[in-house]
Amino acid sequence: MRASAPPAGPSRAADVLAPELTVLGDATRGAIARLLLEAPDRALTVGRLTAALGLRQPTVSHHLRVLHEAGLLERRPQGREVWYALAEPVAARLEEWAAPDGDGTVSGALLGRIIDDLGTRFAGTFSRETVQRVVLESYDLLRERDGAGRALPSATAQFAADRLSAQQRGADLEARRARGAGEPLEVLFVCVQNAGRSQLAAAIMRHLGGERVRVRTAGSAPIDAIRPAVVTALDEIGVPLGGEFPKPLTDDVVRAADVVVTMGCGDACPVYPGRRYLDWAVDDPAGQPLDTVRGIRDDIDARVRGLLRDLLP
């Protein structure tokens, strides 16, 4: 198919017509769906599909059977021939997903490229279906934030890649610990909006810890952008923020962490055995003047330095 982009409507892409996320992940079945979408009356026979795809008829029949059993296709006997057509709700949704959007959402083609690129990056680790699911979920989570469309394609790619990396690390974390492998420590900072305290802590930790630590951030209710006063306060002490942006809290980043530091987000963070959890009582810089934000920055800076001394003596 041209791509599988989420719709612009209220439904979550990863929750709508879930079979497509796995059944249509196969290249041949995706091509069949595309041909049916583009065909007159959106229906074709096995013979016509075989000719169009350049495959053997038993191969095409097998894929049609899989699509039919998943509820994506309808069989329409007409005399001695059987025509196959996409079920109407499926056709409508796929057509919507494949169409370019002009309202600030990501086009189907672009989202498909993100899936392809991350599929290449994580080849041998995750199936294409897993990559597609994480990309679509990540897109939905970011699109829910006001103003997220300004950098939504790159944000989706970065957020999905970070989640896949976290899943990759979390899957064999215990084995690495058992071997005593010299992996960088993983630290996760969580606050409510992921636009102030957690970003201050993460930026300072990255700056001071270098390659000895891997730092992530998340928010229990993230907003669309990091607060300008936070960026200014970091710049004043020579700490770069890089391409960071507010991200939702997901289980995979918690599972990947060695240390989880929360700031004001209550019980939003799931608890998993084997992780160290800290809760820092730090003032929220939201709506505060720059002088107050500087004080919060210095408080967090001292806490980060103490944590680094504890983690990396």
Report on this structure.
The protein is built from 13 helices and 7 strands. The radius of gyration is 24 Å and the shape is elongated. The chain has 313 residues and is α/β, with parallel strands linked by helices. The strands form 2 sheets. It has a 4-stranded parallel beta sheet with strand order 5-4-6-7. It has helices at 20-23, 27-38, 46-53, 57-69, 88-98, 108-121, 128-143, 152-171, 173-179, 197-209, 228-236, 251-256, 290-311; strands spanning 43-45, 73-78, 81-86, 185-191, 213-219, 259-263, 276-279. The chain has 3 domains: 1-99, Winged helix-like DNA-binding domain superfamily/Winged helix DNA-binding domain (Arc Repressor Mutant, subunit A), CATH 1.10.10.10; 102-171, Helicase, Ruva Protein, domain 3, CATH 1.10.8; 180-311, Rossmann fold (3-Layer(aba) Sandwich). α3 packs across α4 (57-69), α6 packs parallel to α8 (152-171) and α11 packs across α13 (290-311). A hairpin with a 2-residue loop joins β2 (73-78) and β3 (81-86).
Would you summarize the structure shown here?
The protein is α/β, with parallel strands linked by helices. It is 50% helix and 12% strand.
